[in-house]
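User: I'm putting together a teaching handout on how multi-component assemblies are represented. Below are the sequence lines for each component of a complex, exactly as they appear in our records. Could you produce the 3D structure of the whole assembly as structure tokens, so the students can see both representations side by side? Please keep the chain order the same as the input.
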Amino acid sequence: MIELTLALGIGFLVGSGIWLLQRPRTYQVIVGLSLISYGVNLFIFSMSRPRSNMAPVVTSGTVDPAAYADPLPQSLVLTAIVIGFATTALFLVVLLVSRGLTGSDHVDGREPN
Amino acid sequence: MNSETMLMMLIALPFAGACLAALFPPNARNAETWAAALVTLGAVVLSASLFPAVATGTPVRLNIEWLPTLGLSFSLRMDGFAWLFSMLVTCIGFLVVIYSRYYMSPDDAIPRFYAFFLAFMGAMLGIILSGNLILLVVFWELTSIISFMLIGYWYQKADARDGARMSLTITGVGGLGLLAGVLLIGHIVGSYDLDAVLDSGDLIRSHPLYVPAICLVLLGAFTKSAQFPFHFWLPNAMAAPTPVSAFLHSATMVKAGVFLMARLWPVLGGTYEWFWLTGFAGAASLLLGAYFAIFQRDIKGLLAYSTISHLGLITLLLSLGSPLGAVAAIFHMMNHATFKASLFMAAGIIDHESGTRDMQKLGGLFKLMPYTATLAMVASAAMAGVPLLNGFLSKEMFFAEAIETHADSILDTAAPYVAVIASAFAVTYSIRFIHAVFFGERPADLPREPHEPPFLMRLPIQLLVLACLVIGIIPAITVGSFLHIAVVSVLGADTPAYSLAVWHGLTVPLGMSVIALIGGALLYVLLRHYLAHCEEGPPYFRRLKGQRIFERVLVFVSWRFARLVEATLGTRRMQQQLRLLVAVSLVAAAIPFYNSNFGLGLFELGQIDIPFALLWVIGIACAVGAAHQAKFHRLVALILLGGAGVVTCITFVWLSAPDLAVTQLLVEIVTAVLILLGLRWLPKRWEDTELGRAPISTKLRRGRDLLVAAVAGLGMTLLSYAVMTRPSPDTISGFFLRKAYEEGGGRNVVNVILVDFRGFDTFGEITVLGIVALTVFALFRRFRPAPDTIESPEQQRIQAATDEERSDRITGQTVSDYLLVPSVIMQWLFPVIIVFAAYLFLRGHDLPGGGFAAGVAMSAAFILQYLAAGTVWVEDRLRILPVNWIGLGLLIAGCVGIGSWVFGYPFLTSYSQYIDLPVIGEIPAATAILFDLGVFSLVVGATVLMLIVFAHQSIRRLRAAKISTTTIEEVA
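Assistant: Of course. Below is the structure of the complete assembly, with chains in the same order as your input.
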């Protein structure tokens, strides 16, 4: 049942993120993007059909691929985590600079009428 | 030197010359001309020496694979036709280079002129010699772009800019059409190779895509050759320096269109559709061009319309589908280039010497410059088709073809009349040019006193006029054999019998010539007085300006239409854009769901892993809570976000991804710190209205957003569940697992993939990371805090006020002692975390850890110092220089990559071995570790840079506050 739990978790993370993505305040959007990135990272990770106790750290000698978790989605997600951090930082700066320049934290840079 | 090498050199030489010419100093006019003349002369010699090889009848070929999978090769091919054209281009190019030396003023940017001139010549030779249709289109576009540069050479003049832009727009659109047409032809034939295409005429003509293909190809050819209705860019291109007009608008660029039509004529021509399209465009250009030319005041304008007319003649000849017509077309291409280039150069001399090109102002120049006048008269006679000159011969062939019946239609019946009328017009404008400029009253108010130009400026015209005469008198002996190999290479076995002679007896074409000559001369006599005073532009058509229509269309497409689309379909509102984006992705994701019969797969309620389920109950609660609290309770939302992050992290541990867990945890910390640093600059917001009191429209909007979010979440759940419950297909992961230790020298497969197997991707990724950090840094230089956030935070103000009230405390003491114990602990943690980072780094290749995780850990050590003691304290004691870390990291990673070249391996090949160090023991020593060191250094630099610029804003705030208080004091 790990699959169902994880799938529900991904769904809620992405759903909450998408809700926030449509909100008017920049801070809501940055929280939303972070939630979506958790969800998407887990989704990519779930492509490896995860199981417990199969970390892809091999021993010497002949290797049986079936005995280890799929390392490829993991390396993809690892880079995604780091790049996600970088884009979060970038967005945060844009958010703050925009707030400083326009005086508003609305995503359009001005308060709605 | 074999012929293939010579062919390659012929293309390469002008481009190399262009690069060389660009490097000359601006005032080296003579040296520059010498260099350009040598380059062009070299090209002439190269083409000439290819004649023996081409004369054998088999084309000279050179094939270099470029993108073989796309059927694209850099293949050059020179047959007789291409040879004749390349001789024409190189010879006229050489003459124009000499002429330009005297035409261009020392104030002009000479290096730019010759660089583009030579590059243009190279591009034109490229069109002529391409043996692959795609390559031809590449060179075709290149000529459009370089001609834009040349027409706009005097970019300080508005008409030069406008003319350049118009020609680029029109020929550029045509070029796109040609590309599409060529792709269609390639699709039909299955190859872009010119020989293969020339062999499949029947296949192409019978294909359903034939009509679209010729429409597109002809769009390219007509725009390039300034054929009706795309003719109007050519007169506007006359703003170019005259040498450019002499080269581009007589011999080369405009000839590219008719060249292409002749080149593909055996394959595309001879059908009814081809006849109508080219016949109509050709006849209209022939007639209208000649008519318009009569009424121009500008000499170059007259020559430009005359060029349109003559190119129309060639197009009309190619429309007929008869081999004799094709012979006449090829012959006329040569003849027109010879006399038109010399006329343009003569026009340039007149302009240069007298300071004007307006025929109503000029007059009586014969006495002042008799040589130039004589040369211009001979060349104009050739343009008018006077016997004993080359223009007469091809025009005679044209008349002979015009009276033949090819396809029974109105166009065909009208052809002889159109031909005679257009020829009469040609006579009229030729006489007008000569009479208005060289005879009559000599005006007193010319801007300059005209006299004969230097000998070398006249020499190119003399040579060309001599060619007109010689070809006109003894055609068979002089050009007969060259023309023959060109004709045979186009027509092959269909080559008709034709005779190049001045006298064919008393024939109908001769009669037509006589009528045209007399009629044209009479027309000039009638129009003489009108032309001497009339306003610009031909009667009846004066108001109908192609240029105006073009501008209207441009304004409509690029402004009004764009505005309309923007107003109806666009939005400036971010929320709507994002909503649209989500909606589109939902639809795009739903289509495959629907199409491939989505099923959830095996749904078994097997053993429930209760701890894991509980974990996710918390995770889901955190996610939903963060979404709910993000508007009014930012800190709560941040904490809940962190909670969701930690649950994600534990999930990674649970499901065999220790590396991800380590990295996620560390990144989580750094992100939280970053956002905490940012929170301070956001406006305060209190929950003022209850949800119940929100207007109904807001409720509806929220309901819709909730629905979108719910659908997206459900979709992700279904999708990931469906994937996870299906068996994994065979992927390349097995390979990585098997080879990681054997070839990568590491046990931690994830790390080996990152630094070894996919090292190049990681290299790109850390570059991106570095760029993002620098961008954050650069953006913050522009940061100005909003007025309401300049003041120090409320808590600090209360603490400072307490200090002031109490006599035993110094102001600011409470603030500085804030959280003293944690601060001290954090300061002590500095070396501990550094050791931890080193540990993470060193074990990375064999056990979970690695450069990314170590880098983030290390940056946490730095930021903790900032948190513990404040920015000023840290920077007094520690010089971190994060930008240097970034640079060093990229340098190490790059050098490790390049290092493998030294040993003859591809970029970033790694080498691994275990070495035994005293005390530490056996450690893995793969070059990938060095690469990982680069990753580590860059991640440290980038993360610390971002954190520091955020932290630094607290200092900026003080400064900003100080400035605002001083201004307030000043005002007071």
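A couple of points students might notice: DSSP finds three helices and no strands in chain A. Residues 6 and 42 of chain A are 8 Å apart (CA to CA).
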